[in-house]
């Protein structure tokens, strides 16, 4: 084969490489499809929604109406049959939160269900807890919503033992403003 014959075969190779290039384009689209269906990675709309819910104006408990959030939390707790619900006004005696919401459940599952429902309803209202403790055991679940409120959901026996009502007896009971 002469060098001219080799040159003549060159366009055939380039045609082959064009088809490879088109195949690689096709594989790129396949790769992007596999990434989109990967359960480990969020899709674009979920990421945009997450960014939207984490907007500082909607998430800062200090800039939102705490009365509205307490009403939502009380309604959610009562929806799960919370017992002995109590709202204490800590504004005048505490600088870490404005309100305590204290309630009880008769068993660990009920305590967890109350907490799950409160978290879900407050999240729908644009508020997420800064901290949560005790959800695994369901004896005393603490949901810290910063300056707006701290929610204590107790198993009956645990509530009797810690007796927060006695510890915070200086705080006015404002439950009647929130319970229908």
Low-confidence stretches: 2-59
List SSEs in N-to-C order: HHHHEEHEEEHH
Taking all residues together, what is the mean pLDDT?
A: 75
Number of helices: 7
Q: How would you characterize the largest beta sheet?
A: 5 strands, mixed
Cα-atom radius of gyration: 29 Å
Which CATH class of the largest domain applies here? Answer: Alpha Beta
Shape: globular
CATH topology-level name of the largest domain? Beta Polymerase, domain 2
Structural class: alpha+beta
CATH architecture of the largest domain: 2-Layer Sandwich
Q: State the helical fraction.
A: 40-55%
Question: What do we call the CATH homologous superfamily of the largest domain?
Answer: Beta Polymerase, domain 2
- List how many beta strands DSSP finds: 5
Number of domains: 2
N-to-C CA distance: 97 Å
Kindly report the spatial arrangement of strands forming the biggest sheet.
1-2-5-4-3
Task: Classify the beta-strand content into a percent band.
Answer: 15-25%
Secondary structure elements and their pairing?
Blueprint: H1 3-36, H2 44-53, H3 56-59, H4 66-79, E1 83-89, E2 99-105, H5 108-124, E3 131-133, E4 140-144, E5 150-155, H6 156-162, H7 164-167
Parallel strand pairs: 2-5
Antiparallel strand pairs: 1-2, 3-4, 4-5
Helix pairs in contact: 4-5
């Amino acid at each position: 084969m002469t060098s001219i014959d080799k040159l003549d075969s060159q366009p055939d190779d380039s045609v082959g490489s064009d088809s490879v290039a088109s195949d690689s384009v096709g594989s790129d689209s396949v790769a992007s499809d596999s990434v989109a269906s990967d359960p480990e990675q969020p899709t674009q709309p979920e990421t945009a929604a997450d960014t939207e819910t984490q907007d500082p104006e909607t998430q800062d408990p200090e800039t939102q109406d705490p009365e509205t959030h307490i009403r939502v939390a009380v309604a959610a707790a009562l929806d799960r049959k919370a017992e002995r619900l109590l709202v204490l006004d800590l504004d005048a005696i505490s600088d870490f939160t404005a309100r305590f919401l204290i309630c009880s459940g008769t068993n660990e599952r009920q305590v967890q269900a109350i907490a799950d429902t409160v978290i879900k309803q407050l999240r729908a209202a644009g508020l997420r807890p800064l901290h949560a403790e005790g959800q695994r055991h369901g004896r005393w679940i603490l949901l810290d919503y910063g300056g707006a409120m701290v929610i204590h959901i107790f198993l009956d026996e645990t509530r009797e033992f810690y007796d927060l009502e006695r510890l915070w007896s200086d705080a006015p009971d404002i439950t009647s403003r929130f319970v229908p």
